Amino acid sequence: MEMDLHIDIYWSDLIAFNVQILGQFLHQPKKSHLESAMKIVRYVEAMDPKQFEMKQMLLEMKQFEHEDDFIGALPSQQVANENEKKKLVKINKRIQRLKNL
User: Fold this and answer.
1) Which of 22, 30, 47, 73 would staple 51 via disulfide (CB 3.0–4.6 Å)?
2) What are 68-98's pLDDT values in tens digits?
3) What is the largest distance, in Å, between two alpha-carbon atoms of the chain?
4) Which domain of life is it from (predicted)?
5) At CB < 8 A and 24+ separation, what contacts does 41-50 make?
């Protein structure tokens, strides 16, 4: 259980870092940012088809304005926007399916 938590935290940090690099590339293109972006593209292209669901889930998570908006909007808490609530339920279902792979 502790190992799973560590992997989850590491995974979310890794995602946040890569999203930050891509954001930097979009706002101020540099060769180093392009290289990081291309590493991500190569990684996604080499993914196992089972992992495409994870990719889709991550894209849906990016619809939240900020990472804190997603983390703070836990199902047990009140979510102001009904549309966001539906997205959270959908994402949580996908997370559960991925854990069962």
Assistant:
1) 47
2) 554 454 444 444 566 666 766 676 677 666 6
3) 43
4) Eukaryota
5) 50/101
